[in-house]
Specification:
Elements lengths: L3 E7 L5 H12 L7 E6 L5 H13 L4 E5 L6 H8 L7 E4 L5 E2 L3 H11 L5 E9 L6 E5 L5 H7 L12 E3 H6 L10 H11 L4 E12 L2 H6 L3 H16 L5 H16 L2 H12 L4
Helix pairs in contact: 9-10
Length: 274
């Protein structure tokens, strides 16, 4: 099996402790990546620089840093990172999440078993304090056909779980700026290109959620950004007008309810209690 790159974006508001937990989970992998590409999305804090320098010193040659002079947002940060990945297979990871020890092993096995596969992901277990206290789970469809159908109204992948072929991403135009849905915008363009998809029927990543996340996903300003991003997805021709309208209507309701109720909706309805 060819080598594996991990692609991450790090920005100034990330907590150093979360980054350390993320990095440690990558070091515990039963099959390890041979390269971590860390895009520094604008200037970072001294504490975050210290974490990067610590791991650079302890694991020479493992981390490839891609510093950006100013904050560009996740989509454009990842756009800068993909070409810097040395391997054809790239695993996405968010710097505040934790990978299960066998994540890479299970996903690499998917590619080994199906040479035509272009992208695979998994379910996620969502936690608020520690991975021992799972509060919800976001499950995704498993087969190529089911994922492509599901993608018309909701994301068929959990972004922080995906492993994909670099060429498939670049052939679709790479990540681009798209409000709140740089991943969604990439998936639909890849699917229009005819990529083959799958998801592992297991939760391979522990994803951090909480009140701050629910607060960010509310309000009129958030809804307007969502609507703009969804219009860009609609413009690709992948989704129908009814797909667009239904997703906008659901998001309008979710965005404008009180934060506590929004959190309940995410945990109990949109994602589901484990």
């Amino acid at each position: 099996m060819a080598g594996l790159s991990v692609l991450m974006s790090l920005y100034i508001k990330e907590k150093p402790g979360y980054v350390e937990e993320c990095f440690q989970s990558l070091l515990r992998q039963t099959v390890k990546a041979d390269e971590w590409v860390v895009v520094e999305d604008g200037p970072l804090t001294d504490e975050l620089y210290a974490v990067l320098e610590k791991y650079e010193k302890e694991y020479p040659g493992l981390i490839k840093r891609v510093p950006l002079k100013e904050n560009r947002g996740l989509g454009l940060a990842l756009q800068a990172g993909v070409p810097e990945c040395s391997n054809d297979l790239i695993a996405r990871m968010d710097t505040d999440d934790i990978a299960r020890e066998d994540r890479f092993e299970k996903q690499l096995e998917e590619f080994k078993n199906d040479p035509d596969l272009d992208i695979t992901g998994s379910h996620i277990d969502e936690f608020e304090d520690t991975p021992d206290t799972i509060v919800a789970k976001r499950t995704v469809p498993l087969t190529d056909e089911a994922i492509k159908k599901y993608q018309k109204r909701r994301d068929g992948f959990n972004h922080m779980t995906v492993m994909y072929k670099k060429k498939a991403v670049l052939d679709a135009g790479n990540y681009q700026s798209c409000p709140l849905m740089e991943d969604t915008y990439l998936w639909v363009r890849m699917m229009k290109n005819g990529v083959k998809c799958s998801n592992v029927d297991d939760s391979l990543v522990f994803a951090r959620i909480g009140k701050a996340m629910f607060d960010r996903r509310g309000g009129w300003a958030y809804f307007k950004k969502y609507r703009t991003g969804r219009k860009m997805v609609y413009a690709t021709g992948y989704i129908s007008w009814s797909d667009y309208a239904v997703s906008i209507m659901v998001q309008f309701i979710v965005a404008l309810v009180p934060g506590r109720l929004r959190g309940w909706i995410f945990k109990k309805m949109l994602h589901g209690k484990k």
